[in-house]
Each structure stands twice: as structure tokens, then as C-alpha cells.
Design a protein that fits this description.
Chain B: This is Protein ECERIFERUM 7. The structure holds two protein chains of two kinds. Chain A is of the alpha+beta class. In chain A, 21% of the residues lie in helices and 30% in strands. In chain A, the strands form four sheets. In chain A, strands 8, 9, 10, 11, 12 and 13 form a six-stranded antiparallel β-sheet that branches. A four-stranded mixed β-sheet of chain A has the order 1-6-7-3, with no helix packed on it. In chain A, helix 3 packs parallel to helix 5. Chain B is an alpha+beta fold. Chain B has one domain: GHMP Kinase, N-terminal domain (Ribosomal Protein S5, domain 2, 2-Layer Sandwich), CATH 3.30.230.70. Chain B contains nine helices and 14 strands. Classes of the chains: A alpha+beta, B alpha+beta.
Chain lengths: 240, 333
């Protein structure tokens, strides 16, 4: 513990951390605001890791821990894909692949009032944003962006949804674009929605395009950038 | 109530519709043709251990599983079958017991299934569910009714001692079509299982001596033929037929049928449990498809066993030709 606190915080960025590692010391970084993402917690002046993974830093001030797993641990401001499980008077119950059901308040839609509550049948796929993710509470979701606009959020029509690891879904969202998506996008036209909870939805004009895109993404999990491009070329040759 | 909701696995409306519409144009979500089987990979005891140690360097969760498996896996008579995403472990053990009264000269074959919640959150620990019972029954019927395993050769002393063969099937991951995967795992485990050699001795010739494997080479079971289970899924519209349905397809399909056939084209068993009715014409089509698939699967199982047996022969303990059980015992005394 002692020697870890004395080391400079920058050294932990992009390196592997395990639960209990003190990754940042706030006493040495006064007059600075930082934002903590998934897997980090604050105990007074110490920011410590809560899960094993790689510590990431994005300018100007965001820190989070990245790891790949099947179960999603909700985190504020993540965009996710959820499935409607049940509807109650005040909330929709949403399955988000997490330890608890997500609550989507019936008013959390653009211009939502008591009069125009949307009707979702069980099994509807929604693109959502996590608003609250506190301990011991069900995470609260919303179908609007921070300013109350519908943006891209809401139900997804048709298409096909498949499950990946959380690591792969984060890779798909990274910029510059993930090689597999870039290679596919050059030849095929399709629509995609990636949730950070390890769910990906794909839609295209014909079913075989959807199948090719879905399988290419699922296969890309353990491949390097160059391998992904070769794999996509190979797949596309087969269907033509 | 919420806990139960969280544990049940569900398919979105989008997926259900997509699977159905794609099937109309003969496309399946994993890129297969309707009558295409998934890739099968079969591994045995020692190969399994090697693989788990490699993976464990990377995955912590797997490490825990590895320790569990390490305790379980013996070298002979254990197999792990991977069919697409589905993983099933089969294990065969034997025990000397008294035979049933009405069949004093026959050994006993029994099958046990274990559906762990690790494989699928909807499997509840403890009491076996409906699916677990059905799976056990299908595998059991395929093996027993077709007399694939020669139970008479398991008799040592009529009415007193016979071998009871126990097949344990552990579902490790549910990716659909557990029945076929479990059946292949059971066959692969049976083919590699070896029981210790026995002989009768004592003053009245009624005493059973079990020779430890170090002294006499254990014997394989007599398996006459391999009854392979092939499952089909039926979809309501346009009477669409698929072979080897995945987890997602199982959630959408209207009915299923499992046929157990062997490479010679003999039909050992058919299981059609509930769901949609199927015309006779379709059943005949299924049986024809199943026969051709069974031949290729039988070949795959036999090839995998062959590889395992050669590996095993290379490691074989060298025995002195004259040494027998009695010699060793005398030396110990």
C-alpha cells in the first residue's frame, strides 16, 4: 500500500490494475476536477480500483477501468441496449444484463407526461442511457439525452440483436473506428447500435447482410486489426 | 419476483421475427444452411487438462473451474464435447454391485444428468428440471433399447457381482441442442472408458479379485454400435425444418423431434415431445437426413477416440510379462 501511494498516478494509466490498487491520490492533485467511470471508487483522498482491468484516461479528466466480461455493471452515462421485461405503473422493468433490473420511469421520454405513456410489449428492444447507478438501488435509465431530447434513444425496430462481451462492445465504439466495422462498411450498408452492456443490434435491407455483419463482429473478438480485415474480406468473398 | 425475472433468459421481439423471416429465405443466424450441423470437437481427459491450464493463465474464473475439474477428471472415460457454443462433459465410472434379481447375468447401465446454473441461469440448482429428465431419458433410451453396450459381458459372478456403469453428463454451457451434444459426450466417454480386470479366486472360486490398473491392463467396454441422437426443429410457418437448432432457435421453434440412429441406418429411438404436429412425410425426410448425419458423426467420434487411444498407447506402462497380481501381493507380504 505504502509504495503504491508514493508512485505517481500517471504510471497506472494504461496498465493492469487489480481490486484494491490505489490508482490516484487526490491530495497530490488539488484544484483539479476529475470524473470517475466504472470500476473506481473514492475513499477520502484515495481513488482505488474495484475490479481487475486496464486503467484508462481520456483528456481532460475522465478515468475508468476497462475489462471484458459477460455481466454488465451499470455506470452513469453509459449508453446501453435493454429489453423490456415488465411494465409497472411508474416504471418499465428493463433487463440490462446487469445484477439488477433497470428501472425506466414512464416519464423519461422526450416531452413525456402522464397522458402519453408509451406502450411497450414484453421483449421490446430499447436504446437507453443510464442516469443513476447507485449501490443497492436498481439503476435508473432514460430514453432522453441530458438535455431532455430524444436524440437516438428509444425502441429499435426490426433487425437482429446479439450478445457480446462488454470489452468487444467498447472496442466497437472506440474512435478511430474499429477495423471490422470499417472493413464491413466499405462493402455493405447496414445500421448498427452498440450498447456498452455487451449487446449489439444490427439492421440491414436483407437478412443475409445482417447475418454476415453479426458473425463478423462476433468473430472479431480475439483478432488483431489486420486479422479482422482479412476475415471480413474472406467472408465477403464467400457471399458474392 | 424480481430475482426470478433476472434469472430467466429472454429473446427480444426483434430476434424472434428476424429468425423466422431469415429462415423463409433459408438463412440461419449463425450462417448455416438449414440442414447443416455445427462443428463438433471432442476432447478427452488428459487433453482437457492441458487446455484448461493454458486458458487459466488468462481467466481467473476458469481457474476455479479448473481446480474442480482437476478433482473430477480421470484419464479414461471422460470426455468434453463442444457443439458450437454448447459444451457438455461426459464421465463414466464403474462399481461392483449385486445385479437386479430378474436379470442376474446382466450389468447395470445408468445415466445421470447435471444441469449447472453456470451453464444457463434458468437452470435451478438442486432438483433436476423437466429438460434434465428428458435429456437423460433420451440418451438412456438410445443406449439401452438398442443394446449398444453389451451388459452381459459386465457380469462377473451371476447373481452376485456385476459392474454397474454410471454415465454422468454435466452441462457446462447451453448453446442449444443439449440432447445431441450430451449423447455424443456419453458415447465418447463410453468408448474410452476402461474397467479394471477381474478374476475369480479363493477356495471355492467365488471370491472376486479386482486387479489394479498397474498390474493388469484395464479392459474397454464392448460397444456394438453408436446410436447418435440428431435433433430437428420445426417452425410454424411453411413447415420449415432445421437440423441442430441453436439456443435462439429453440426459443422460437414450434416443435422438436430427436431421432436416434446409428451409422448402419438402424433407427434406435425417436422422441417427439409436444409442440406442433409433424406429417409422416417430414418424419421420413428427417430420418433420411439423420442417417447421413449419423454416419459422419460416428466417424468423427471414432477418429477422436482413435487419436486418444494412440496417445494412450504411447504412454502405456511397461509390464513384465510374467508379473501377475499374486506375485505382487507375495512381494508385499
Amino acid at each position: 500500500m505504502e509504495n503504491k501511494q508514493s508512485s505517481s498516478p500517471a504510471s497506472f494509466v494504461d496498465s493492469t490494475v487489480v481490486p484494491g490498487d490505489v490508482v490516484l491520490d487526490l491530495s497530490s492533485m488539488t484544484n483539479q476536477t476529475i470524473k470517475l467511470g466504472g470500476g473506481l471508487r473514492q475513499d477520502c483522498d484515495a481513488i482505488s480500483a474495484m475490479k481487475a482491468g486496464t486503467l484508462r484516461f481520456s483528456k481532460p479528466n475522465k478515468y475508468w477501468i476497462e475489462s471484458s466480461q459477460k455481466r454488465y455493471v451499470p455506470c452513469v452515462e453509459d449508453t446501453i441496449l435493454g429489453i423490456v421485461v415488465d411494465s409497472k405503473a411508474d416504471n418499465f422493468l428493463i433487463d440490462i444484463k446487469g445484477p439488477a433490473m433497470g428501472f425506466l420511469p414512464v416519464l423519461a421520454f422526450e416531452g413525456g407526461t402522464r397522458r402519453n405513456i408509451p406502450k411497450f410489449e414484453v421483449g421490446t428492444l430499447l436504446y437507453l442511457r443510464v442516469v443513476k447507478a447507485n449501490f443497492g438501488m436498481n439503476p435508473e435509465l432514460s430514453c432522453t439525452d441530458a438535455s431532455g431530447k430524444a436524440a437516438e434513444f428509444g425502441p429499435l425496430k426490426d433487425g437482429y440483436m446479439f450478445e457480446t462481451s462488454t470489452g468487444l462492445s467498447r472496442k466497437l465504439l472506440s474512435s478511430p473506428a474499429c477495423p471490422v466495422l470499417e472493413a464491413l462498411g466499405k462493402k455493405l450498408s447496414f445500421e448498427i447500435a452498440v450498447g456498452l452492456n455487451g449487446r449489439v443490434w444490427v439492421n440491414a435491407a436483407s437478412p443475409d447482410t445482417i447475418v454476415v455483419v453479426a458473425n463478423a463482429i462476433m468473430n472479431s473478438e480475439c483478432l488483431s486489426g489486420a486479422q479482422q480485415i482479412i476475415m471480413v474480406d474472406h467472408l465477403l468473398k464467400n457471399i458474392q | 419476483m424480481e430475482g426470478r425475472l433476472a434469472n430467466s433468459w429472454r429473446l427480444t421481439v426483434n430476434d424472434k421475427n428476424f429468425i423466422k423471416t431469415a429462415l423463409l429465405s433459408e438463412i440461419r443466424i449463425d450462417g448455416r444452411k438449414p440442414f447443416e450441423y455445427r462443428k463438433i470437437s471432442i476432447k478427452f481427459g488428459r487433453q482437457l487438462l492441458k487446455e484448461y491450464f493454458l486458458i487459466d493463465a488468462i481467466l481467473l474464473v476458469e481457474a476455479i473451474r479448473c481446480i474442480l475439474l482437476f478433482c473430477i477428471i480421470e484419464e479414461d472415460g471422460s470426455s468434453e464435447v463442444q457443439l458450437g457454443q454448447t459444451r457438455v462433459m461426459g464421465m463414466v465410472t464403474a462399481q461392483l454391485v449385486q445385479p437386479y434379481r430378474d436379470r442376474p447375468k446382466e450389468g447395470i447401465l445408468s445415466i445421470f444428468t447435471e444441469f449447472s446454473p453456470m451453464a444457463d441461469p434458468s437452470f435451478e440448482p438442486g432438483r433436476p428440471g423437466e429438460l434434465a429428465v428428458e435429456l437423460g431419458r433420451i440418451v438412456d433410451r438410445g443406449l439401452r433399447e438398442s443394446r449398444a453396450v453389451d451388459t452381459e459381458s459386465l457380469c462377473i459372478l451371476a447373481g452376485k457381482f456385476v459392474w454397474a456403469i454410471r454415465i454422468d453428463l454435466h452441462i457446462l454451457d447451453n448453446g442449444g441442442n443439449l440432447v445431441d451434444a450430451a449423447n455424443i459426450a456419453a458415447l465418447a466417454a463410453l468408448l474410452t472408458f476402461r474397467r479394471p480386470e477381474c478374476s475369480l479366486g479363493g477356495e471355492d472360486g467365488q471370491e472376486v479379485i479386482v486387479h489394479p490398473p498397474e498390474i493388469r491392463e484395464p479392459l474397454p467396454l464392448t460397444v456394438h454400435h453408436l446410436p447418435v441422437a440428431i435433433s430437428f426443429g420445426f417452425f410454424s410457418n411453411e413447415s420449415i425444418l432445421v437440423i441442430d437448432p441453436t439456443h435462439n432457435e429453440e426459443a422460437v421453434m414450434g416443435g422438436r423431434m430427436t431421432t436416434t440412429v446409428n451409422a448402419n441406418g438402424d433407427i434406435c429411438a425417436i422422441q417427439k415431445s409436444g409442440g406442433e404436429g409433424v406429417p409422416r412425410r417430414v418424419i421420413m425426410q428427417c430420418l433420411q437426413l439423420a442417417t447421413s448425419k449419423a454416419a459422419s458423426i460416428t466417424k468423427q467420434i471414432k477418429d477422436a477416440v482413435e487419436v486418444f487411444n494412440t496417445e494412450r498407447a504411447l504412454r502405456k506402462i511397461k509390464r513384465h510379462p510374467t508379473s501377475t497380481g499374486d506375485d505382487v501381493r507375495e512381494k508385499q507380504n
